[in-house]
């Protein structure tokens, strides 16, 4: 099973992937009731976070499952001056209530008889990652349809973002579908042809 909970510019998309009754939940940001409805009798094996900004992590405390996050973004979960939580939008979770599992580049997260591969894609944040499962690539706020994520927020870096975008688009199979944190889905093939940032950075040569 694959399901997308569509967000908008302010609230990130969330995703569920399931195999043989086991599920992983990616970037739970809103609509807890609908997520529970879609999970149904399936077992939630883990929560995968592409990065630690508030619009991707708001519901992480609502589920009893390990939370996979890159070690470079783990502290950002609790640094409200940088992660987007505020007095008007307060953080609801506490460190003691979370089962955090640190991940790195090429970590393999099991899902039944398969696994999700972690690809470290810094640039939007230092610990941003993308998750590759079969022909699905969940890119968070690193790569969008014909666009890329911001690099001007805390721990963002344009140099790293360029490397990450080239790494993804050059190395992943062209038929892979990209599911970003916001906006529409795309494919690696489309990004190679149509993404102006990738095309520009590719022409600039090796970084």
TrEMBL record:
Q: Which UniProt keywords apply?
A: Hydrolase, Metal-binding, Zinc
Check the record and name the Gene3D superfamilies matching this protein.
Answer: Ribonuclease Z/Hydroxyacylglutathione hydrolase-like (3.60.15.10)
GO MF terms here are: hydrolase activity; metal ion binding
Domain Metallo-beta-lactamase residues, every copy: 11-182
SMART domains linked to this entry? Lactamase_B
Identify which cofactors the protein needs according to its UniProt entry: Zn(2+)
Protein name per Swiss-Prot or TrEMBL = Beta-lactamase-like protein
Q: Which organism is it from?
A: Acholeplasma oculi
């Amino acid at each position: 099973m694959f399901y997308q909970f569509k967000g908008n510019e302010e609230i990130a998309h969330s995703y569920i992937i399931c195999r043989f009754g086991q599920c992983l939940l990616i970037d739970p940001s809103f609509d807890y009731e609908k997520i529970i409805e879609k999970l149904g009798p399936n077992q939630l094996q883990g929560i995968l976070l592409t990065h630690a900004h508030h619009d991707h992590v708001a519901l992480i405390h609502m589920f009893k499952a390990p939370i996979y996050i890159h070690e470079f973004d783990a502290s950002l979960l609790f640094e409200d001056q940088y992660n987007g939580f505020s007095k008007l939008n307060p953080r609801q979770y506490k460190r003691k209530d979370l089962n955090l599992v640190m991940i790195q580049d090429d970590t393999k997260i099991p899902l039944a008889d398969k696994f999700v591969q972690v690809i470290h894609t810094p640039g939007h944040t230092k610990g941003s990652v993308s998750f590759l499962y079969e022909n699905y690539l969940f890119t968070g706020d690193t790569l969008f349809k014909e666009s890329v994520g911001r690099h001007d927020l805390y721990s963002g870096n344009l140099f790293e973002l360029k490397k990450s975008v080239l790494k993804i688009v050059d190395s992943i199979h062209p038929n892979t579908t990209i599911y970003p944190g916001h906006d529409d889905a795309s494919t690696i093939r489309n990004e190679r042809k149509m993404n102006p940032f990738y095309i520009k950075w590719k022409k600039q040569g090796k970084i």
